[in-house]
Amino acid sequence: MLAGIGLLAVAVLAGFVWWLVRYDLGGAHADVGGTPAPADAAATATTEHTSSTTQETTGVGEYVFDSATAPDVGTNCAAVSYGDVRDWLAEHPCDRVVRGLYETSAGGARALVSVVVVTMPDERRAAELRALTDTTGAGNVSDMVRDGSAEIDDAPQVAGGQYASDVTGTDVTIVEAAFFDGHRDGTLLADVTDEALLLATELRGG
């Protein structure tokens, strides 16, 4: 009788100890895990970083220029030119050409601006190219709308609008601009093209 009671007491005590050990271990495991981070935290951080590196708007002075398309970069200048300029570049190849397309607002009117930077092998060739592009009827390096590299709804023909150029060392910068919707203001557009010459530094990569 006493032996049976003793065995029962041992069984109850063993069961209690087993339950206690299991409970404590379960609590320790939960503490080690900690508080989980939100499932989308990493994705959110990555997205924010990517967005911060995207630059679409440039303010270089009075006007703000919004990039209308990604720049076009190449080394065959003749292939993206026309007229006498194309023929000249076929005989005197450039080192690099970068073409950009921007939109801006001036006097309440919307304007499309083409900026082209041509890098020649030496300063003499750069000066010769600028003199040729400044010549009426000699052709030019095509803007991206003219040769179909970019598609913009109701885009004006910038080649028939305002023109400006500059040469710095071996770099020739060519700017052409026109207003959308047939708007005309030569004086205002001249201000836009002069300021757009400053975009060359960014366009050629600093």
From TrEMBL:
Q: In terms of domain of life, where is this protein from?
A: Bacteria
Residue numbers spanned by region Disordered? 37-57
The entry's protein name is: Uncharacterized protein
- The organism is Haloechinothrix aidingensis
